[in-house]
Write a structure and sequence with these properties.
alpha+beta; Immunoglobulin-like; 2 domains; 10 strands
Length: 228
């Protein structure tokens, strides 16, 4: 299942940026039915914002800086605010994932209401199409009683990461309903071995998987595999 990730691309020395982000979150989450139990609380976050704003004023503007002690105090208060923002982001991520399940678009819509932003939002693939170029791969490196099947990722896959794994099914006929799943792999090939004392004819099917579950079933590839 895809997980929502929130971006906080601010260093602890970006004092004004941290204050602006925290103020936006306080406004966005106040009375927000999506986030009824924020942790840390919005009151404590607002208090941390006030501390940073006060420390900024004491440190002063460029050309009229305060003491080194005031800078140390500002850095400490900014660090505290930054840590609170990260803790609250984790709360938002967990809450959104519980509420939206595996619906990544719904996750995004809820997160936006919090005042936070996505980190590199994903473009979900949707249900995967069938794999391409599924075939029996002939190789001298195989034993006589082995068969190797290969395939390419589904057509129109947005990125390689959209395919999480492949389920491999095998049957003794070309009727898929009678086949059984024999393996799951993240690779685009699989070696099967006939360990019986007689030649067998097996039919194989590949089903790609992603966060939406199983994709489209491939066509069957039928192979006769000699005995040991």
């Amino acid at each position: 299942m895809a997980k929502p990730i929130i971006a906080i691309k601010l260093r602890t020395t970006a004092y004004a940026g941290l204050v602006n982000l925290a103020n936006r979150i306080v406004v966005s989450m106040t009375g927000n039915a999506n986030f009824t139990t924020p942790s840390p609380t919005l009151l404590s976050l607002q208090s941390a914002v006030t501390d940073v704003e006060t420390a900024i004023a004491v440190w002063g503007s460029k050309g009229n800086r305060g003491s080194h002690a005031s800078l140390v105090d500002l850095r400490q208060k900014a660090l505290t605010l930054s840590q609170m923002l990260k803790s609250l982001a984790q709360y938002v991520q967990n809450t959104v994932q519980t509420a939206a399940g595996s619906d990544y678009n719904a996750m995004g819509a809820i997160i936006v209401t919090s005042g936070y932003q996505f980190s590199n939002p994903k473009n979900p693939q949707g249900v995967l199409q069938m794999v391409q170029s599924f075939h029996n791969f002939v190789s001298r490196k195989l034993n006589g009683n082995q068969v190797k099947i290969k395939w390419k990722k589904p057509l129109n896959t947005a990125t390689a990461g959209n395919v999480k794994s492949y389920n491999i099914y095998r049957g003794t006929t070309v009727v898929f309903s009678a086949a059984k799943q024999i393996a799951t792999t993240t690779k685009s090939s699989f070696i099967d071995t006939n360990s019986t004392s007689a030649s067998v004819t097996w039919s194989y099917w590949i089903v790609p998987l992603n966060t939406n579950g199983e994709g489209v079933l491939s066509n069957a590839v039928t192979v006769t595999v000699p005995s040991m």
